[in-house]
From TrEMBL:
Protein source organism: Rhizomicrobium electricum
Lineage: Bacteria, Pseudomonadati, Pseudomonadota, Alphaproteobacteria, Micropepsales
Catalytic activity: 2-phosphoglycolate + H2O = glycolate + phosphate
Active site as annotated: 10
The protein's name in its UniProt record: Phosphoglycolate phosphatase
Molecular function terms, GO-annotated: hydrolase activity
SUPFAM superfamilies in UniProt: HAD-like
Highest taxon, organism lineage: Bacteria
Length: 223
């Protein structure tokens, strides 16, 4: 038995730097529609509220907001294109794999809770050989809710067997989800968010993923 808490990890901007392949897909959709491409810094401000919101926001910042009925066909194109190169350039952030290895060796329960469409999340984690760390993986289209809906958080906590848990993410939806679920939340400073992570109300902001296990234990008062 371990005294460690369970961990719920966000995916994009927390475990994996997905910006390069997301950028390629968004720029394909934009240029095909006759709009200028986005730069990486703009994209990094828009990721985190699911693919449909990413499509709507991406077109909005190019000066060409979409009619609501235009989003669904673009979502279908997004899934197809993104799935064809999802891990071409996307890689785990520094320290992620070694930390997951360590936590797994300690018998810690871990899950992924992401607003990324569920098939994309499964494919990405499979191609990067990361699925084996997680007892549960919940992507944005698995249930009819996105983060920060508390029903989603409850499901994932239940999947992990209850008990103390910590959310590790990069954006405001991660903070709101954890608050609704009553668990502490750590944000990674290198992630995707329009506002600096330090302003989002997390219990702690970390620069290095390797510091997550010790910080989580401190937050929960576990030695
Ligand atoms: O919005 C997305 O597609 C990814 O979001 P995530 O940060 O919840 O993984
Ligand atoms: Mg994120």
């Amino acid at each position: 038995m371990t005294s460690a808490p369970a961990f719920l990890f966000d995916l994009d901007g927390t475990l994996v730097d997905t910006a390069p392949d997301l950028l390629a897909t968004m720029n394909m959709l934009l240029t095909r529609a006759g709009h200028p491409p986005l730069g990486p810094e703009v994209l990094r401000r828009l990721v985190g509220r699911g693919a449909r919101n990413l499509i709507a926001d991406t077109f909005k910042v190019t000066g060409a907001p979409l009619a609501p009925e235009a989003i669904e066909p673009l979502y279908a194109d997004f899934l197809k294109d993104y799935g064809s190169h999802i891990a071409a350039a996307s890689r785990p952030f520094p320290g992620v794999v070694e930390t997951l290895d360590r936590l797994k060796a300690e018998g810690v329960r871990m899950g992924v809770l992401t607003n990324k469409p569920h098939p994309n999340a499964m494919q990405l984690l499979t191609e990067l050989d990361l699925t084996g760390y997680f007892a549960t993986i919940v992507g944005g289209s698995k249930y009819p809710w996105l983060k920060p809906d508390p029903r989603l958080y409850e499901r994932v906590l239940a999947d992990l067997g209850g008990g103390p848990a910590v959310m590790v993410g990069d954006s405001i939806t991660d903070v709101q989800a954890a608050r609704a679920g009553g668990t502490p939340v750590i944000l990674m400073s290198y992630g995707y968010t329009p506002e600096p992570a330090a302003t989002l109300g997390a219990d702690l902001v970390l620069d290095d993923f390797r510091d997550v296990p010790a910080a989580a234990k401190r937050l929960l008062g576990i030695s």
